Amino acid sequence: MPHGQPDAPYPADLLKLVEDYLVALDLGADRRAARLVEAMRYSLLAGGKRIRPVLTLATARSRGADPAAALPAAAALELIHTYSLIHDDLPAIDDDTLRRGRPTCHVTFGEDIAILAGDGLFAEAFNLLLGRQQGKPKVVLRAAAEIAAATGVQGMVGGQYMDVAGEAAADDDLRTLHVLKTGRLIEAAVVCGAVLSGAANAAPYRAFAAEVGLLFQIVDDILDEAGEEGELGKSVGKDRAQNKVTYVSRFGMDGAERLAAEAAERALERLAALPGDTSDLACLTAYIRRRRR
Amino acid sequence: MPHGQPDAPYPADLLKLVEDYLVALDLGADRRAARLVEAMRYSLLAGGKRIRPVLTLATARSRGADPAAALPAAAALELIHTYSLIHDDLPAIDDDTLRRGRPTCHVTFGEDIAILAGDGLFAEAFNLLLGRQQGKPKVVLRAAAEIAAATGVQGMVGGQYMDVAGEAAADDDLRTLHVLKTGRLIEAAVVCGAVLSGAANAAPYRAFAAEVGLLFQIVDDILDEAGEEGELGKSVGKDRAQNKVTYVSRFGMDGAERLAAEAAERALERLAALPGDTSDLACLTAYIRRRRR
C-alpha cells in the first residue's frame, strides 16, 4: 500500500499493523484469569482508529525506520488509553454506559472486574514496553520514562482528576486540564516514535505533538456537543449534562471551530520543521481535524 | 545503628530510609491536583512496616551495596502496594472501611478520587523507577521489567481477580492466588535489590523470596481470623464474612500455623544459600513470621 500521499485518508497499513498486533497480544492467558483477560480484550479490541499507536509508527516511519520495530511501545500506549477509558466510564467517575458503540466494560463485566481490567491493562502496558520493546536499553528506558511521566499526576491522571473535580475555572486551567488529560499521552506517542527510531532531540516532535493534542481535544468537545451518537459510538451531550467546562461551553461552537482550525494550522507549521517524509503525520493531523468519532 | 544482629526486631535504619524518602517524595504538586496528591499521600503515609521496600534495601545491603542507592525502586514498590490496597478496599471490590488504622481512601476522599489516587500511585511508581533510579540502563530496565511483570495479569492484578471472582476452588489454586496477589511483588522486591546491586543470577534470591511471600500470606490469613482489629489496623474476620477461601478456612488454625512454620524454615534454608551478610533478611523473615499486623 502506498504511503506518503497527503490526500490519503488514514495510514491504513499502520492501522493494520497495530490492530493485528493487538489481536495477537498475549495478555497472560491462564484459565483462572480468563474472564479478567476477556474484559481487557473486550475494551481493547472494540475498534477505533488507534490514533496514539499509529502516531508512534508514523513518526518512526517518517525517520526512515521500520514502523513494526516500535510496535510494543505503540501497543502499550493503546493499552494505557483503553485503561483510562474503562476507569473514566466507571459509575463513580463519568458513569457512562456506551463506549466505542458497545456497553462499557463495567456494564458488561461488573464494576469490580472493570476496575481490575483497567489496572491490568496499565500493568501489561509496562510489561510489554519493558519486556518486549527492542532497542538499546538507554533508548527503551527513555521511551518508557516518557510514557510513565505522561500517565501520572502531571499527565493523564492529573487531568482526569481536574476533570472530575471541576478544577477548570479559568481558560488557562481548561487548557491545562486537556494538556494533561489527553495531550501528554499523544505527545508521548510521537516522542516515543522519534526516540525509538534514534532521534537525539525530541523537542521539535514534542512541539508538533502538543498542537495535535490540543486539536484532538477541541474536536472531541465539538463532537460531544454536535456528534451523532450512532456514529460517535459513545453518549453525546454528557459534558453539558454534567456541566463540564469544554471548548464549546467556553467559546461557543463557532469559537471552538476557529480554535481547532488554528491548532491544525500550527501543527502543520511545526510538522514542516521535522526531517524526513512526514506525509503520514500530515494525514493524521487532517484526520484528527475532520474526524466524526 | 548496628545491623546484622539476628535477634534485632526489624532493620530500623532501613525503615527510616524508606519512610523519610516517602515523606519527601514529590508526587507532582500542582495547586490544581492538590487534593489528588493529598489522597495519594494519605494512603501512602499511613505507616506500616514497609516490608517490600525494606526487603529491597536489605537485599542490596546483604551484597555490600549502599542501600540508599536502591531507594527509588524500593519506594516504587511501596507506591504500588498502596495503590493495590486502595483499589482492593473500594466498595465494588472488598468494600472495606478501615485500613492501617484509618478510614480507607474512598471513605475519606470519595470513590472517584480513590480510584484516581490508586491510578496515580501506580503511574508515579513507574515514573520514579524509570526517571530516578540510578544504575546502568540495562540494569534499571531489568528491575523495572521485573516489577511490571509482578503487577500484571500473571501477578498482582491476576491474583486480585482470582480473589474477587472466588477462583480458588482447589488447594493448588489457593496457592496460585496468593503467589500472584502478594507473592510476586514480594519476590520483585528481593529480586530488584539483587539486580540493582549487581547480581547476575537472581534465581537464588527469587527462591528465598517465594517462601517469604508464602509465609507472609499464611500469616495474613491467620491475622484476619485471630488478630486484634485495633492492633491490626484493618477490619478482621472479613475473609470469613465474605466466604473467602484462606489458609485458615482450608487447613484450620493449627494447620495454618504449621504451614507458616514450614514456610519460615524453608525461607531460612534458602537464605543460607545466599552470599554476603544476610542477617537483615533473616530478621525480616522472623518479623514476617511473628508480626501482629
Provide an overview of this structure.
2 copies of one chain form a homodimer. The first copy, chain A, is mainly α. The first copy, chain A, has a domain of 189 residues: Orthogonal Bundle (Farnesyl Diphosphate Synthase), CATH 1.10.600.10. Helix content of chain A is 69%, strand content 1%. Chain A has 14 helices and 2 strands; from the N terminus they run ααααββαααααααααα. In chain A, helix 3 packs antiparallel against helix 4. The N terminus of chain A is likely disordered. The interface between A and B is large, with 56 and 56 residues.
List keywords for this structure.
homodimer, 293 residues, mainly alpha, 2 strands, globular, disordered N terminus
For the sheet with most strands of chain A, the description reads: 2 strands, antiparallel
Shape by Cα distribution of chain A? globular
What's the CATH class label of the domain at 12-200 in chain A?
Mainly Alpha
What structural category characterises the helix and strand content of chain A? mainly alpha
CATH level-two architecture of the domain at 12-200 in chain A? Orthogonal Bundle
CATH superfamily of the domain at 12-200 in chain A: Farnesyl Diphosphate Synthase
Number of DSSP-assigned strands of chain A: 2
What percentage of amino acids of chain A are in beta strands?
under 5%
Low-confidence parts of chain A, pLDDT < 50 over ≥5 residues? 1-8
**Distance, first to last CA of chain A:** 25 Å
| Helical residue percent band of chain A | 55-70%
Mean pLDDT of chain A: 91
Radius of gyration of chain A: 18 Å
Oligomer: homodimer
Order of strands in the sheet with most strands of chain A: 1-2
| Chain pair forming the biggest interface | A-B, 56 and 56 residues
